[in-house]
UniProtKB/TrEMBL annotation:
<comment type="similarity">
    <text>Belongs to the SPCS3 family.</text>
</comment>
<protein>
    <recommendedName>
        <fullName>Signal peptidase complex subunit 3</fullName>
    </recommendedName>
</protein>
<dbReference type="GO" id="GO:0005787">
    <property type="term" value="C:signal peptidase complex"/>
</dbReference>
<comment type="function">
    <text>Essential component of the signal peptidase complex (SPC) which catalyzes the cleavage of N-terminal signal sequences from nascent proteins as they are translocated into the lumen of the endoplasmic reticulum. Essential for the SPC catalytic activity, possibly by stabilizing and positioning the active center of the complex close to the lumenal surface.</text>
</comment>
<keyword id="KW-0812">Transmembrane</keyword>
<keyword id="KW-1133">Transmembrane helix</keyword>
<dbReference type="GO" id="GO:0045047">
    <property type="term" value="P:protein targeting to ER"/>
</dbReference>
<dbReference type="InterPro" id="IPR007653">
    <property type="entry name" value="SPC3"/>
</dbReference>
<keyword id="KW-0256">Endoplasmic reticulum</keyword>
<keyword id="KW-0735">Signal-anchor</keyword>
<keyword id="KW-0472">Membrane</keyword>
<dbReference type="Pfam" id="PF04573">
    <property type="entry name" value="SPC22"/>
</dbReference>
<dbReference type="GO" id="GO:0006465">
    <property type="term" value="P:signal peptide processing"/>
</dbReference>
């Protein structure tokens, strides 16, 4: 799937798909760890619901927990949209999108407190 800012998952739904569990993850490396992965956002899409997602102004659902300061000014953060198919019957396959987006993280950023 190529990122266009607005994606539809309607082609994924066939006779055996009850729902999709979508999740956006970030992958990056630090001096301490060669591989760090964190889920930023997730959503369940049920059969019959609107399957078109507007990803442009989406807010992170979960906090980034950084191991040290590896995110700040990191020039290679890779975002991947993946999904699990929840079938009516059978196995639960894991499917990744057919593209990734790499982007630099800012040198400074603000955090907001949520209570």
């Amino acid at each position: 799937m190529t990122y266009t800012g607005c994606e539809s998952f309607q082609p994924v739904f066939d006779w055996n798909v009850k729902q999709l569990f979508l999740y956006l993850s970030a992958e990056y490396s630090t001096k301490s760890n060669s591989l760090n992965q964190v889920v930023l956002w997730d959503k369940i899409v049920l059969r019959g619901e609107n399957t078109k997602l507007n990803l442009r102004d989406m807010k992170s659902k979960y906090f980034f927990f950084d191991d040290g300061n590896g995110l700040r000014a990191n020039k290679n953060i890779t975002l991947t949209l993946s999904w699990n198919v929840v079938p009516n019957a059978g196995i639960l396959p894991l499917v990744a999108g057919s593209g990734q987006v790499s982007l630099p993280f800012p040198d400074a950023y603000e955090t907001t407190k949520s209570y």
